[in-house]
Amino acid sequence: MIAHVLKRQLQSAISHTERLASPVRPLAAPPPGSGLKPVLGDYGLPVIGHTISVLTDLLERILAKRGTGPMPTDGLPIRLQRLS
What is the pLDDT of residues 11-44, one digit of tens each? Predict the structure, then answer.
């Protein structure tokens, strides 16, 4: 029962933080003269980034980010290896 209430509260917090996310901006600039476009994304809220949504709904977050390729866009200090 407590777990269900906690999950509901966390999902509500996620909903609010996603609405307050930082604006989309270039995360990585392409090499000069390459003709490539910059990698766009957002870092989420200051300090915590997208940590709350990652920890509470990891599978849905992975599936939603699947199309972004190997470049992580969460602004976290760690980088996960791609498994494909």
Answer: 777 677 666 657 788 888 899 999 998 888 877 7
Q: How far, CA to CA in Å, does 59 sit from each of 24, 38, 66, 74? A: 23, 27, 11, 15
Q: What is the tally of structural domains in the chain?
A: 1
Of 2, 20, 43, 66, nearest to 83 by C-alpha is 66
Distance between CA atoms of 79 and 65, rounded to whole angstroms?
14
**Cα gap 52→57, rounded to integer Å:** 8
pLDDT in tens, 35-46: 998 888 877 766
Could you tell me if residue 73 is inside a domain?
no
Give me the domain span that covers residue 45. 2-25+39-68
What pTM did the predictor assign?
0.40
User: Does residue 74 sit within a domain?
Assistant: no
